[in-house]
Specification:
With 384 residues, this protein is of the alpha/beta class. It is built from 14 helices and twelve strands. The strands form three sheets. It has a seven-stranded mixed β-sheet with strand order 2-8-7-6-5-3-4, sandwiched between helices. It has a three-stranded antiparallel β-sheet with strand order 9-12-11. A two-stranded parallel ribbon has the order 1-10. The structure holds 4'-deoxy-4'-aminopyridoxal-5'-phosphate and glutamine.
C-alpha cells in the first residue's frame, strides 16, 4: 500500500476529539462551532431536498451558486470574476486543494509550504509527487521574511500553498507580506494555491485581502473558499475555486475525476446564503469576537499567556513562559486527562523545525463551555 497514507497517523483533530470523549473533557480541540448555523440557510437546504432536483448537478457547480460566488466576491473583495469561466464548486476546500495539486504539479516539482500548515497539505503534496520545501513561521508574529523565501524558491518551484488567514496561528498576513510573496511568485513563475477558507472570520475590523486581487497576480493564483466557515456549517463541504480560465479548465478536469460534483441541495442553500445582507456576516464576526474576548480575558486572569488572535475560531497560548523545554503534545495529553480540557498542540502542524511551545484552543463555543474551560485550566495551572 502507498506509504504516504499507510504510515500516516490519524489526524490530530480526530485524536484529540476521541481523547476528549474518553476523558469527558470540554472539547476545544477540533475546530467546529457550537452555533448551529443560520436557520434560513439550513431551511433552504431542507427545502431543496424535498422539492428540488436531487440528481447530478452540473460538473462545475450549479450556475446559481457560481453566480452567487462571483457576486459575493465582488461585494466583499472587489474581485471581478466570470462565473462561467473562473468559478468552480467542489466538495469542500479539501477537494479543491487535492484537485489543484493533482492538476498543477508534476512529479519532482517543488511546492513551498509555510509551517505551521493545515494537516492535509503535506500528504496531498507528496502523493501528487511534489517535493515539499518548508518556510518556518514563528510566534508571536508568524510573519514571512524574505531570507526564508530566498532559501526555498528555486527554478523547480511550481506552486506555493498559502493559507491566509492562517490556521492554526489565528493571524492575518499584512499586505506587505502578500506583496513580498507575489514578487517571488513572479520571479520564479510559480502559482499560489490560496487557502482562504477563513476569509470571513476576521476580527477588530480587519478586512481580508485575497492574494488574487493584488496587481499582477490574477493569473498566478487559485483562490479556494469554503461555505463551512462562512456559515458555521463545517460538515457541509461546499468549496469554491476561483482562477483564471486557462487554469480553471485544468482544475475542472481533476474535479471531474475526483468527486465530479457536490450535493445540489447544499449548493442551492449556499447560493442563497452568500447573498445574505452584510448584517449577517458582520454579526457572525461580532459574536465570534465576543467569544474570543471572553476566553482571552479568562485565560489571562488565570495567568496564562495568550497570543493575539486576529481571525479564525482559534486562539493560542504560549507555554514558553512556563518552562523552556516544554512539549506542547505532552502538555495537551496531560491537560485532557487532568484538567479535562482538549486542545491541539501546534507542533502537529510542522514537518520539521517544530515550534513546541504553542497550544491552540477553539473558542467558537458556548459561554458555559468557555467559562468552564477557564475554570478548569486555572486550577490545572495552579497545581502545576
Ligand atoms: N483549510 C483550512 C486552513 C482549514 O482550516 C480547513 C477546515 N478547518 C480546511 C482547509 C478544510 O475545509 P473544508 O471543510 O471545506 O474541506
Ligand atoms: N479544520 C478543522 C480544524 O482546524 C478540523 C478539520 C478536521 O477535523 N479535519 O480544527
Amino acid at each position: 500500500m502507498n506509504p504516504i497514507f499507510a504510515e500516516a497517523p490519524t489526524t490530530i483533530f480526530e485524536t484529540m476529539s476521541r481523547l476528549a470523549g474518553q476523558h469527558n473533557a470540554i472539547n476545544l480541540g477540533q475546530g467546529f462551532p457550537d452555533d448551529p448555523g443560520p436557520q434560513d440557510v439550513r431551511e433552504k437546504a431542507a427545502e431543496a431536498v424535498i422539492s428540488g432536483w436531487n440528481q447530478y448537478p452540473p460538473m462545475m457547480g450549479l450556475p446559481e451558486l457560481r453566480q452567487a460566488v462571483a457576486a459575493h466576491y465582488r461585494r466583499f473583495h472587489n474581485l471581478d470574476l466570470d462565473p462561467d469561466t473562473e468559478v468552480m464548486i467542489t466538495s469542500g476546500a479539501t477537494e479543491a486543494l487535492a484537485g489543484a495539486l493533482l492538476a498543477l504539479i508534476e512529479p519532482g516539482d517543488e511546492v513551498v509550504l509555510f509551517q505551521p500548515m493545515y494537516d492535509a497539505y503535506l500528504p496531498l503534496v507528496r502523493r501528487a509527487g511534489g517535493v515539499p520545501k518548508f518556510v518556518t513561521l514563528r510566534p508571536p508574529h508568524w510573519r514571512i521574511d524574505e531570507d526564508a523565501l530566498k532559501a526555498v524558491f528555486t527554478d523547480k518551484t511550481r506552486a506555493v500553498i498559502f493559507n491566509n488567514p492562517l490556521n492554526p496561528t489565528a493571524t492575518v498576513f499584512p499586505r506587505e507580506d502578500l506583496e513580498l510573496l507575489g514578487r517571488y511568485l513572479e520571479k520564479f513563475n510559480a502559482i499560489a494555491i490560496c487557502d482562504e477558507v477563513w476569509e470571513h472570520v476576521l476580527f477588530d475590523g480587519l478586512q481580508h485581502q485575497p492574494l488574487i486581487g493584488l496587481p499582477g497576480l490574477r493569473e498566478r493564483c487559485v483562490k479556494i473558499g469554503s461555505a463551512g466557515k462562512i456559515f458555521s456549517l463545517t460538515g457541509w463541504k461546499v468549496g469554491f475555486v476561483c482562477a483564471a480560465p486557462q487554469i480553471l479548465k485544468v482544475l475542472g478536469k481533476a474535479h471531474q475525476y475526483i468527486t465530479f460534483t457536490t450535493p445540489p441541495n447544499l449548493q442551492a442553500a449556499v447560493a442563497y446564503g452568500l447573498a445574505k445582507d452584510d448584517a449577517y456576516f458582520l454579526g457572525m464576526r461580532r459574536d465570534l469576537q465576543a467569544a474570543r474576548d471572553r476566553f482571552t480575558v479568562g485565560l489571562s486572569s488565570a495567568g496564562i499567556a495568550v497570543l493575539p488572535s486576529k481571525a479564525t475560531y482559534f486562539l493560542n497560548i504560549d507555554l514558553a513562559p512556563i518552562a523552556n523545554d516544554i512539549d506542547d503534545a505532552a502538555f495537551c495529553l496531560r491537560m485532557v486527562e487532568e484538567a479535562k480540557v482538549a486542545a491541539i498542540p501546534v507542533s502537529a502542524f510542522y514537518a520539521e523545525d517544530h515550534v513546541r511551545s504553542v497550544v491552540r484552543f477553539c473558542f467558537a463555543k458556548t459561554t458555559d463551555k468557555l467559562d468552564g474551560a477557564v475554570e478548569r485550566l486555572a486550577a490545572f495551572m495552579k497545581r502545576g
